[in-house]
Amino acid sequence: MKGRVWKVIVASLAVVAAIGFAVAFWPGSQDIGTRWEDNNILSLIRPPFVGAATDDTNFLEEEAGISAYTNVGPELDLDKAATGFTTIEYQTSEYIIGSVRLPGYGTSEDVHAYVNIDGWILAYYLNHEATGKIFNWSNLSSTKLEVGISELCDAAGMPFAYATYYDFRYPHAQKMMTIIDYDSFNINIPGTFSVYTRSYSIYGSGYHDTVFKVDGVTVDSVDEGVKYGTVTPTQLSPDVVHTISVSGSSKRVAIILAYKEA
After folding, report:
1. pLDDT tens digits, residue range 40-93?
2. Residue 47, phi then psi, degrees to nearest 5
3. Fewer CB within 10 A of the end CB, N or C, for the chain?
4. What structural domains and CATH numbers belong to the chain?
5. For residues 203 and 212, what is the distance between their CA atoms, to the nearest angstrom?
6. Which segments in the chain show pLDDT lower than 70?
7. Nearest to 115 by CA among 65, 142, 143, 155
8. Going by C-beta distance under 8 Å and a sequence separation of 6 or more, which residues neighbour residue 33?
9. CA 249 to CA 262: how far, in whole Å?
10. How buried is 174 (Cβ within 10 angstroms: 0-12 exposed, 13-18 middle, 19+ buried)?
11. By the 8 A CB rule, do 17 and 9 touch?
12. How far apart are CA 195 and CA 101, in angstroms?
């Protein structure tokens, strides 16, 4: 499975496999609609309710990083939604701020959440946490942020169709791309793009440590479970073909880029 080159093309912003085949997609359902340009490219759109009529969302600008949000309509019952929170930090008659436990995960993976009476539900991780933390290796049909939103929707008895994403740290970032593989691949990022974060998530389960490397240099490893973090611009510089690899008895790697086109 070696020899692939994944290249972000300026014209179409598509990922091209030059030789062979690899898994490349962004977790999410197929009913996302026009937000999905390709299976692995997602538009980043600022939540329309942030900074609008009231100032109850100002805290998001200060503490939120990567986020996902949806609107289930004004039929949302805040009292019912409150039962989906593990911890409630602040609650009024118009909104709730707190954290949500994710099934199958420890407390360190809890997502922060904001819910208001207009039906907006937003889940996020803090701005110092790597974007790769959202990756849900136990179920690639959703991210951890989507799982958090789903937990609140279930508590409120409301349907959840899809989520829109936004990173409060990078207001100029337009898109987010994810590449997933089980072995190794090559990637070339155009120098004309502004890349705001180069994040990763690795998964390992087996008798040997899972080792994640860029150009043959070890970046991170895990004996069992999941680890995530960021790769520096020097490690994944533009206009250079870089080799991403993961080794171990049972392993996976995801690279996540947030960027703006030229």
Report:
1. 889 999 999 998 656 688 899 999 999 999 999 999 999 999 999 999 999 999
2. -60, 130
3. C
4. 5-43+171-260 (2.60.120.340), 58-167 (3.30.310)
5. 10
6. 1-39, 52-55
7. 155
8. 162
9. 40
10. middle
11. no
12. 31
For tokens 């409060």, name the residue.
168
